[in-house]
Specification:
With 636 residues, this protein is an alpha+beta fold. The chain contains 22 helices and 25 strands. It binds 2-acetamido-2-deoxy-beta-D-glucopyranose.
């Protein structure tokens, strides 16, 4: 991958490179506001033709409100492979996954551990950091950072990689955390040498020696010098490892320090950890590792081993098979409490459908014989391979109005962890109930949000449209059939009224037209043909087509209307709000409009995070700074 860091510098490109090549289970521990999460999802969907990529991204944040930023980011990407959860990252629960009827601990192949930090690396952009900086900020965060990172590596699969990052340059928040983690891992973890994966990036190796300073300016070289009345502020894990041999074996120089002048960015710190064996305190987990991760393990370990053999590999003590089983049972503590429910074989009857969610509507999977489904299947001629088991609703009782869909892996996670997970959101909307009811042969119309997932399974009601038709569809609210090309007209004539798919295939012989396929949801009425596409997406497609869009009522767009219904409401007054002409500044527009929603959200999210953690909590300014840094790097 040739990425020019000089021109498109920013931490996001770095993450892209470091995390590239993964396919499976990904955890983003401190994910809000979600720009990196979005990248992770995009990577999963690298192949547009795969409606359900293997694997998923679980995006976590401690702050409930900030979780909705993540939901917003995820919605923009229309992925059935993302789940937003709301936990304290330092105690994020161990999840289970069902592997051919056997419950196993869910280990992640990749973890992004972008911890709360002092944000001192962002001081070129954030004036507040100058005003509020003291060494105390870092000292206060160190413990939390170490706890989060520790929780992360516990849940990492053998051979998996965890990226630890901050936008701070203080070693107390960086090398000290990594060194402590390496030390207590007793060889289970190793720092990866990623230098060859980052061609063109300027950076400085991690440091091995540092001192610790108190707020009042007192320096300490070692833990033994710290007076007892200071031993709550300064902790032993903040100091470099004394033992020179041990320290050398850690290869702290493999940590990456990006200084602001290197690429003209903020300053930040990144370390990539590879897990070679279970953490010493959870040795027994090993037998529960998925076979899948074993495959990854082979690749990554051999790559890491190529460096030097300085790190001692701890042999796992042999243990009797029955003891292993006991241990694994113990690990899944919640399981025993759930054993009653788990005894059920096959899909549970709808009455016993499990409920998920936390202060959220429940997630209820459709039962196999739900009468809702056959008419839908028939109307859209769904392929027999369509995974209807993955359909869910957000209501347990009453009429099902929206049908959502998740990937089969996320279904597995949802079903097997309902008691321990606070799920904020997952799944994409694929069908909506039609207010006009059954008179159109099918009570459910397609939803734009899920159309790219659904489209490969649909074998009926697809109309191929030309680029001019797409323009008409996107700019007019309810155009008469006569406004469309004669081909489209012909196609539609014999088609029953109701929900349709409008498909545009690019024509390579006309290079100045839109060169990517577009799939729109639409409605075939008596005399008209319309697209059911949310306004923001309409604008997006129009910009891609080089049509300039001015909007008078930008401010009125709020979070909901952008992310929720692709309904009539959104498409109302489309024409009033838009004015079109050919656009030479399409790119500029795109940049502006794309960034704006995040900013609006950021502003509305300047809410003090509630102190949900018992221990040290990062100050709200720090948390904000981190996000601003994230955003600025996206913009850059
Ligand atoms: C766990 O997930 C599997 C696979 O998705 C499913 O068959 C099983 O019913 C789930 N277990 C429970 C208790 O729901």
């Amino acid at each position: 991958v040739d990425i020019s860091f000089a021109s498109r510098s920013g931490s996001n490109e770095l993450f892209h490179v470091i995390l590239l090549n993964f396919l499976f289970y990904i955890l983003d521990m401190c994910a809000a506001p979600g720009s990196k999460t979005a990248q992770l999802i995009e990577m999963l969907h690298a192949d547009m033709n795969v409606p359900f990529p293997e694997g998923f991204v679980i995006a976590n944040d401690i702050d409930n409100k900030r979780c909705y930023l993540l939901v917003h980011q995820a919605k923009r990407l229309n992925s059935p492979c993302i789940m937003v959860v709301n936990h304290d990252a330092s105690s994020i629960p161990t999840l289970q996954i069902d592997n051919s009827g056997r419950k196993e601990v869910l280990f992640y192949d990749r973890i992004l551990c972008d911890v709360p930090c002092s944000g001192d690396g962002t001081m070129r952009k954030n004036i507040d950091v100058w005003k509020k900086w003291t060494t105390q900020n870092s000292l206060q965060l160190h413990g939390l950072q170490l706890r989060i990172a520790t929780r992360g590596v516990e849940q990492l699969a053998e051979g998996g990689r965890m990226v630890y990052s901050t936008c701070s340059l203080n070693p107390v928040e960086n090398e000290a955390v990594i060194a402590s983690l390496l030390e207590k891992s007793e060889g289970a973890l190793e720092l990866a040498d990623v230098s060859s994966e980052l061609p063109g990036l300027k950076w400085m190796p991690g440091i091995t020696q540092w001192k610790v300073m108190l707020k009042d300016g007192q320096w300490f070289e070692a833990w033994k010098d710290v007076p007892s009345n200071r031993q709550t502020q300064i902790r032993p894990t903040m100091f470099p490892i004394k033992d020179e041999e041990k320290q050398k074996a850690m290869n702290l120089e493999r940590c990456i320090r990006i200084l602001p002048h290197h690429q003209n960015t903020g300053g930040f710190f990144v370390a990539v950890l590879i897990k070679k064996s279970p953490m010493p305190w959870n040795k027994r987990q090993s037998k529960l590792q998925r076979k899948l991760s074993q495959r990854t393990a082979d690749i990554s370990v051999s790559a890491a081993a190529a460096e030097d053999g300085a790190v001692e590999i701890v042999e796992e003590p042999p243990a009797a098979e029955d003891e292993e089983t006991k241990e694994s049972q113990h690990l899944l503590t919640v399981e025993s409490e759930q054993s009653k429910k788990d005894g059920v074989c096959g899909p549970p009857p709808s009455k016993k459908m499990k409920l998920f969610g936390f202060k959220e509507d429940p997630f209820v999977f459709l039962s196999e014989d739900d009468p809702l489904f056959p008419p839908i299947q028939k109307f859209y001629a769904l392929d027999p391979s369509f995974p209807k088991m993955n359909l869910l609703t957000r209501t347990q009782e009453g009429k099902k109005r929206q049908l959502y869909m998740v990937s089969k892996e996320l279904r597995n996670v949802l079903l097997n962890n309902s008691e321990r997970m606070k799920v904020i959101n997952t799944g994409i909307k694929v069908w909506s109930r039609n207010s006009d009811g059954e008179q159109f042969g099918c009570a459910f119309r397609l939803a734009q949000e899920g159309i790219y997932t659904l489209y490969p399974f649909i074998n009926a009601r697809i109309i191929n449209v030309c680029i001019e038709d797409v323009k008409v569809l996107l700019t007019q609210e309810n155009p008469f059939l006569s406004k469309f090309s004669s081909e489209t007209h012909k196609w539609v004539k014999d088609l029953a009224m109701g929900s349709i798919v409008l498909k545009y295939e690019p024509d390579p012989s006309k290079p100045d037209t839109l060169q990517c396929p577009v799939v729109l949801c639409g409605w075939h009425g008596k005399t008209s043909l319309r697209a059911f596409v949310p306004k923001n997406e309409r604008l997006h497609y129009l910009r891609m087509m080089g049509v300039e869009v001015f909007k008078a009522k930008r401010k009125e767009e709020d979070f909901e209307s952008k992310t929720e219904e692709g309904d009539q409401d959104n498409t109302k007054h489309m024409e009033e709000e838009m004015d079109m002409e050919h656009n030479e500044l399409a790119t500029k527009m795109e940049a502006e409009v794309d960034e704006e929603p995040i900013h609006e959200l950021m502003e509305s999210s300047v809410i003090e995070p509630e102190n949900k953690m018992e221990n040290v909590q990062p100050s709200s300014e720090n948390a904000e700074n981190r996000d601003i840094a994230d955003l600025s790097s996206v913009k850059a």
